[in-house]
Amino acid sequence: MLSLVHVLEWRAATQPDAIALSDDRGAELTYAGLAAAIERAAAGCAAAGIRPGDVVPVLARNQAGWVTAMFGLIRAGALPAAVNWRLTEPVVATLLAVLDPAAVVTDRDCHALATGAAGEATAAGAADRPVPVLTGLGPVTADSPPDGQPPERPAARLRGPEPAILVHTSGTTGRPKLVP
């Protein structure tokens, strides 16, 4: 069974020039460009110390960079968590306490929210270490510079039955729960 990363790589090999992704900020990536951007994001994860199995929330506005960050984390073997940028800082801090993340990936627009929530989660004792906030999502193009070498492929994490991402819900209790 293939993972989402394998499906995108297959599309990049069979239809490299087809448009795969665009956003309202002007980003547009072909499947080949998307595959290259995912490899760059995976390399950035490795350079930041993110390892296979790490949980890493992505807190950013809707944009192509959000997609490449999520898939880059999957490609690196991490388990990304989609966190809604419209949530309040205390709610994000509560989610971070539940997630116990290795880091938080964010864009410039959500940097203050991510930093504040990470600090609040640490101060409340929910995290036993400060949670690094990695700010770097922005315009993505097919010729964006590389961030280094992508990590080895984590074979176990790139299997189809493994969860691709974590999402959150408050369900009927109002308390955050994670859904793979």
Describe the structure concisely for a colleague.
This protein is an alpha/beta fold and about 180 residues long.
Structure description:
With 180 residues, the chain is of the alpha/beta class. Helices cover 36% and strands 18% of the residues. It contains five helices and eight strands. The strands form three sheets. Strands 4-3-5-6 form a four-stranded parallel beta sheet, sandwiched between helices. Strand 1 (19-22) and strand 2 form a beta hairpin. Helix 1 (4-14) packs across helix 2, helix 2 (31-47) crosses helix 3 (64-76) and helix 4 (89-99) packs across helix 5. The longest helix is centred in the N-terminal third of the chain and has 17 residues, at 31-47. The protein is globular. The model has no long low-confidence stretch (mean pLDDT 84).
